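Duplicate of #3305? Posting structure anyway:
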């Protein structure tokens, strides 16, 4: 019981810290965006923005899984083609 309470307190503190930092940086970052781009944001539909984020998220996921598979395949020892019966018997 105490372990789950400690976990929940840590999780709540992390979420509160993240929300606080995002809220604190919202104003200065919005000013910087306005200075660099001339507008506060591009007029993009929220549905299109979510679809683009999902697309790139899935592309990143597939790329990372394929890369992990390729790296693991380079380190896994391969079995001999003839199989274990081709080895000479010990006497």
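Output from current build:
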């Amino acid at each position: 019981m105490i372990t789950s309470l400690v976990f929940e307190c840590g999780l709540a503190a992390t979420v509160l810290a993240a929300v606080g930092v995002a809220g604190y940086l919202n104003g200065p970052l919005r000013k910087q965006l306005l200075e660099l781009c001339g507008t506060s944001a591009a007029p993009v539909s929220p549905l299109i923005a979510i679809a683009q984020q999902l697309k790139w998220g899935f592309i990143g996921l597939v790329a990372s899984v394929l890369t992990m598979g390729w790296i693991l395949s380079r380190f896994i020892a391969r079995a001999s083609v003839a199989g274990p019966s081709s080895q000479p018997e010990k006497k």
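Confirmed duplicate; merging threads. The longest helix spans residues 2-37. The chain has two domains: 1-42, 44-77.
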